[in-house]
Design a protein that fits this description.
Layout (H helix, E strand, L loop, with lengths): L1 H17 L8 H18 L9 H4 L4 H5 L1 H4 L9 H14 L5
Helix pairs in contact: 1-2, 1-6
């Protein structure tokens, strides 16, 4: 559980950094984290439709699975990679993350 929070916090940093809020020294690290998220998303997306259902996220992207209904704000039954990134960035900002 602790490692999941670390991964989530690190992802938040990466996503916020992608908006220019982090310094240039973190760019390659941020890019690696975004790449890792993209790879995990692609692996979880069993039918390769560019969307994850709750069933696809279960066990492969636990954070997404736990927060699925919040990420899927339009109740479409599936979420995109961009929706996941937006959700994580929004949560980080709501917690007052300052970089």
């Amino acid at each position: 559980m602790k490692s999941q929070h670390i991964v989530t916090a690190t992802l938040c940093l990466a996503l916020l950094g992608a908006t220019g809020l982090a310094n240039a020294d973190n760019t390659s690290r941020q890019e690696r984290l975004i790449q890792k998220l993209t790879e995990r998303f692609t692996t979880a997306d069993v039918n390769a439709d560019g969307l994850l259902t709750a069933a696809e996220a279960e066990g492969k992207m636990r954070f997404v699975h736990r927060h699925f209904n919040e990420i899927d704000s339009g109740q479409q039954g599936a979420v995109s990679l961009d929706q996941i990134k937006d959700y994580v960035a929004h949560k980080a900002m709501a917690r007052g993350a300052v970089f």
